[in-house]
Design goal:
Largest sheet: none
Helix content: over 70%
Number of domains: 2
Strand content: under 5%
Structural class: mainly alpha
Oligomer: single chain
Low-confidence stretches: none
Order of helices and strands: HHH
Radius of gyration: 21 Å
């Protein structure tokens, strides 16, 4: 009986690991799709740094900034609901 239980644990280990991996991927995707306010602020600061260092044009900056502001607005609407 102990052998069957141990064998079951061994066979289940890859499945458990796969589930943990999929959960981690889901969590990261959720962060990308549904960022919180602090993540948006970090991205805005990152954009500003890229603009100031010349790694990004003003036009690219404005386009990215608008997307982030739109995400922030959606978060604010969600808080009001």
């Amino acid at each position: 009986m102990v052998l069957i239980s141990a064998l079951g644990e061994i066979l289940a280990a890859p499945v458990k690991l796969g589930i943990k991996l999929l959960e981690a991927i889901r969590d990261e995707a959720d962060k990308e799709l549904y960022p919180d306010e602090s993540q948006i602020k970090e991205k805005l600061i990152e954009l500003q740094t890229l603009l100031e260092s010349g790694q990004m044009t003003e036009r690219e900056y404005e386009a990215q900034e608008e997307k982030l502001i739109e995400q922030w607005r959606r978060i604010q609407k969600g808080k009001e609901a």
